[in-house]
Amino acid sequence: MTNYLIVVCGRCGGYLLAKDGQRTRTCPYCGAKVITAKTRRVAVVNDAEAASRLLRRYKAKERTKQDTLDFEEIFKKGHKSDA
Q1: What residue ranges do the domains of the chain occupy?
Q2: Confidence of residue 17 (pLDDT cuts 50, 70, 90)
Q3: Most buried residue, 8, 19, 22, 34, by CB count within 10 Å?
Q4: Angle, CA of 66, 62 and 12, to the nearest 5°
Q5: What's the CATH fold of domain 4-78?
Q6: 58, burial (CB in 10 Å: exposed 0-12, middle 13-18, buried 19+)
Q7: 1 Cβ neighbours under 8 A, 6+ residues apart
């Protein structure tokens, strides 16, 4: 049975899916060549559908985290003290 890896692009931090044994992947976000043996592995899953669901959850969590950071930055700019 084939295992599927969820790895993180070293350049942009995007999550991507690769088959175990696959040497490289091109990051769909920044175009970087990702060497799967050298990059950070987030998860190893033995089912393609489950790997895809997990990848979507990681991406959604990352978007939520970025939205929170964006909100905090906007909040800080809008509420700066004049003192």
Answers
A1: 4-78
A2: very high
A3: 34
A4: 85
A5: Rubredoxin-like (3.90.820)
A6: middle
A7: 46
Residue 23 to residues 12, 14, 67, Cα–Cα distance (Å): 19, 18, 33
53 residue type, one letter: R
| Strand partners for 44 | 5
For residues 59 and 77, the model is more confident at 59
Q: Are strands 4-8 and 33-35 parallel, antiparallel or unpaired?
A: unpaired
Q: 83 pLDDT exceeds 70?
A: no
Note the pLDDT tens digit of each residue in 28-71: 999 999 999 999 999 999 999 999 999 999 888 877 766 565 65
